[in-house]
Amino acid sequence: MAHWDGIEAFVEVVKLGTFAAAARQLHVSNSHISRQVAQLEQELGVPLLYRTTRQIHLTDAGERYYARCRELLDGFREAEAALQSLQEKPHGILRLSCATAFGERFIAPLVNDFLKLHPQLEMRLHLTNRQVDVIDEGYDVVIRMGTLQDSTLVARRLCERHEYVVASPSYFQSVSQPHSIAELIHHRCLIGTRDQWRFDVDGLHREVRVSGPWQANSGPALLDAALKGLGLAQLPDYYVMPYLASGELVEVLTRFQCRDAGVWAVMPRHRQHAAKVRQFIDFLVEHLPQRLEDACATEVQ
Description:
By secondary structure, the chain is an alpha/beta fold. About 40% of the residues lie in helices and about 20% in strands. It comes from Billgrantia ethanolica.
């Protein structure tokens, strides 16, 4: 392709924000990157970038061209990765993000088991309850839970996950149990990271906004509040099953329980065939369901 070097330089400049950063990424000089982009603009006959002393901005033509060129580069890298992964051992750095409590309890131990099998691999595990931007923040894999939003990312289901609305028996000493979703407005709802609870109603998925006097971005803290009778909480099976079995928690709104709240590995399309990504996700698919099953079966001490 006649413009290939210029396209790669142009995409990296836009993605990283400066000519200097693009030069470092491609292991060439600043002047080389500048010449490649200028030559590309000359060959196309249109300016792609507005340049100032401190910033660069895309022209209208540049915005359209960048969107298509980034897809082109991603497709090329995906094709390369697909070929390399056929015989390749996982290597390099695997960048992974996951929600904090779930990551600490389930993902981090499996990450460590995987690294024991592949000591040549490096891991950067970022635990946060913020929804990260997979592509812009440079992640190879992000673990997400619940119903996924439509996107250009590739997703693979790792295991099932069910959510329960629960409270302690002591909470129901002063209020009656809700029998419909509409009755939640009359209850103290304990809120986690999201203030929308998931339900299935007549075969359709619904998200219902709830409110209450308590909120924290921590599953264990939410569980503790529910056990102490502070209100209703919606929590996944691996938190509540032992306490439901012991009678310390009571499930309500059972017929509306959300059944489509799986655990997913989400990744950029061009990275799905990389050996480190493919083999790590295969490892999670093999081992994570049993870890969750064991957590659900663990008796309360």
